[in-house]
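Bug #77: duplicate submission created two jobs. Keeping one. Sequence:
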Amino acid sequence: MPSHQIRIIEIFATILACAAFLCWSYRRNYSACKGNDYEFDPGRVRAAFEPHAKRYQDLAKLVLTLAAASSAFLLSFLVNIDFSKLRNNYSLRLEAAAPFAMALLCLSAQAHV
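Kept job's structure:
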């Protein structure tokens, strides 16, 4: 797939994600103004959401661990590049994609802290 097509897909996905967030944010703020705030406890039973919250927190820990490990892998790869040797296409493409990937991984890790 050519590089410009990938960029177009990235831009479209970013615009779609921003639109979805703005839609969700608007609906949430509008319902809070009317007094219909979100309740996390199902059936209005106090602390009924705790088992679900623990699973979500464990999933966030997993995502944080994977993002940190991926960032460490990319940094290790970039630091250990040997420019005196002939490099393959995979190495060159990974080096080119590393800044964008590192930004996304760091944002992912920051969002879950």
